[in-house]
Amino acid sequence: MIQVAKRFIEFIIFLLLLSFISFIFIKLAPGDPVKQMLQVDEVSVTKEQIEALREELKLHEPIYVQYWYWLKRFFEFDLGHSYITKQPVVSELLSRFPATITLTCTSLIVMILISIPLGTLSALYKNKWVDHICRLFALVGSSIPSFWLGLLFIELFAVQLGILPSMGKGTIQHVILPSLTLGIAMSAVYVRLLRSSLLESLNEDYVKAARARGISEKRIFLFHVFRRSLIPVITIFGMSLGSLISGTVVIEVLFAYPGIGKMVVDAIIRRDYPVIQGYVLFITILIVLINIFVDICCRYLNPEIRLKGVERR
């Protein structure tokens, strides 16, 4: 209970520091949100109107005062309203989040379908032609930028063949190209990671002891080697899952996919400060929750972690 309370306090302190730092950097960025809201390039606006709106939004106050106003609303679970759409930031995030989750989940499915078979085959057939092909795929896949791979897919499947849409959201076909782009880019990393983890587990003493007792190779691999090899994979997966959700920005912009990544890019262009700040905090909380879930999974897969936790108590 004490450990839980300690971690919760650390999380609150980290969240406050992050919110303050991000708030300052957002405010110091060039551009005027008031002019973006009034669209002074298209409509004739007086200086009095600009100053009135700036005062209404409290943008005339010093940065620390603006942060204090924002912090008070934050503790009331209010992230403010978008300068452009006038909608609550929470509503904006929640309306776009399902699209990003859909893209993330489908990308993970692609990654799992590629990385687990290739990583396993590469470890079981070490230094054979199968291993060389899998390692070549991992090398090429990790070397190609995801946005360039996405452009290749758009050119091939959308422009040349015309069988898949290149932008937007609506049907399952709209998710295929961005999911393949993200999934292939991720799988290259996990093929190498799973291969090295499996090879390390195959050389452990408990595997040799299990073979000496006459346990079948299939049972050893499935119930001992593979399960133990998943621990570092899941740990890295948890760390990359949060970055995947926040890192879909490039792919969402490339494929004009209406997720939170594209939303925050539009907010940056329009100097929509509340949306940017809300996005930073939303992603931070999400990453922390994912790390907690990964920690629980690792404790389940590896009894040694659970025993160490009991000994510390």
Automatic annotation (TrEMBL):
It is found in: Cell membrane. Residues 97-294 form the ABC transmembrane type-1 domain. Gene3D superfamilies: MetI-like. Keywords: Cell membrane, Ion transport, Membrane, Nickel, Nickel transport, Transmembrane, Transmembrane helix, Transport. It is a multi-pass membrane protein. Pfam families: BPD_transp_1, BPD_transp_1_N. The keyword Nucleus does not apply. Belongs to the binding-protein-dependent transport system permease family. OppBC subfamily. The complex is composed of two ATP-binding proteins (NikD and NikE), two transmembrane proteins (NikB and NikC) and a solute-binding protein (NikA). This is Nickel import system permease protein NikB. It comes from Aeribacillus composti. The lineage of its organism: Bacteria, Bacillati, Bacillota, Bacilli, Bacillales.
